[in-house]
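User: Can you predict the 3D structure for this chain?
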Amino acid sequence: MTDIGLQMDADDQAAAADANVASVGDYVALLKPRVMSLVVFTALTGLVLAPGHIHPVIGLCSLIAIAIGAGGSGALNMWYDADIDAVMSRTRRRPIPAGRVTPGEALAFGIILSAGSVMVLGLVANAVAAGLLAFTILFYVVIYTMWLKRWTPQNIVIGGAAGALPPVVAWAAVTGSVSLESLVLFAIIFMWTPPHFWALALFKSGDYERAGVPMLPVVAGAAETRRQILLYTLALAPVGLLPWFMGFGHALYGVVALIGGAGMLWLAFAIWLKPADDRPAKRMFGFSILYLFALFASLLVEALAHLAGLGA
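Assistant: Here is the predicted structure, written as structure tokens:
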């Protein structure tokens, strides 16, 4: 019986050890694939909209480099934020707090991917695009993750610059420069970020409070957060129309921007007018993703139609 008991204990320990071994999926999770998909999509739009010609292989390699840079910075974010992730319900199953990936492994993984992505983009595209990608990674990891996130309720506002830069990086990969049009794409994402994440923070404020993250609802209260969501959405709606006004967004984009902007405003007013109801904030969080996707998708469709000779 003792031998059987010892064998059972050994089997249990082996099973526990196996459960803590990182899988390929764990390393994919470190890349923050949902964030990466948004980065790739907005970068693709910037790449296609940019004037001039880029060889398809160089364009593909540039997009892959931007995606890997985003993934590397995501891994570094998870490495630094492992203590916060461990106490938040929506993040505690991530690979590091769950014990499947060690902090050192995540750190090395993130550094290698980040440095490699900048080098590749510099080799296949140009130094301007590589420099912008390096700045994006450093801004997200150092300025946002290590400083802003834990010290100020404006973390999302300032830190949103990192998430808004991918179309600018892609534009530079084609042209070797930054233009007003690429900065408008940056402005759309930058202005979209606060209402999107503050809507999430409204119904997840308990998580942020437990983790000690000074998100706006925790520091300034839900009422001020609702007011700020409304103010930023009032600013976002006209910014979203700028590509149409400037002529690099056409009829399809104009319709999408008008309808989507109206939807964002409706939800922002609903959040402001119904302080006891979390449903408008949850709807805003979901709809805002659709809104941003629709804006960039319509720009992409119009640009591809133009390249194919099917539109203006």
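The mean pLDDT is 91. The CA atoms of residues 184 and 242 lie 7 Å apart.
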